[in-house]
Please model this.
Amino acid sequence: MSAALLALVALTLGGCGMNAQTLQSYTPANGVNIDDDFLKVRNLLIIADASGQGRLSASLVSQQTNDRLTGVAGTALKDDGTRAGALTVGAVNVDLPAGRMVVLTGPGVAPIAVSGGDLKPGLTAELSLTFANGSSRTIQVPVADAADPIFSSVTPLPTGSPTPASSPTGTASPTASPSPTTTP
Model:
C-alpha cells in the first residue's frame, strides 16, 4: 500500500516545474540580442532624446575571426509598427577583434550617432548592421529614453556631426614674469 501511495505521489509531483520560469530564456536588458556562429550582439538599442537625436548602444563579439562593423542603416517605426522616416547614421568603423567584446558606448570607441524626425523614445526602429566580412543583420530594436537615469552615463550626441574630443598635448608650466629693474 505504501509503495502504491509513493508511486502516486511521484507521478503527481513529477510533472511540477517542467515550465518553470527559471527554465525560460530571459535577457535582463532593455535591448535585443543577435546570436549566430560568427557574431554575438547583446543589448542592441538606440538611446535617444525627444528631439530624435541619439546614439547606438550594444556589446558585440566576433566569435571566430577579426571583423569590423562598417555600416548601420535604419528606419524609425511608428507605434503601429509601420515604417516612418529613414534614420541618419553617423560614421561607422568599429574594429571587432576575434573573441573580444567591444562596447559601442565604451571608452576608445567612436560614438555612432543616430537621428531622425520620427525617432522617438518608447518606439522601435529597424536597423541593419553591415560587417567587413560581407554579412549583415537586420533586427527591430527599442528606442530608449535618454532621460532615464539608467542611461545617465550614455547621453545622446549633440546636434550635428560628432567631433573627436581634444586632449592636451603637454603640461602647462607657469611663465616667469619679468621683475622690475632699476637703472642707476
Remarks:
- The mean pLDDT is 81.
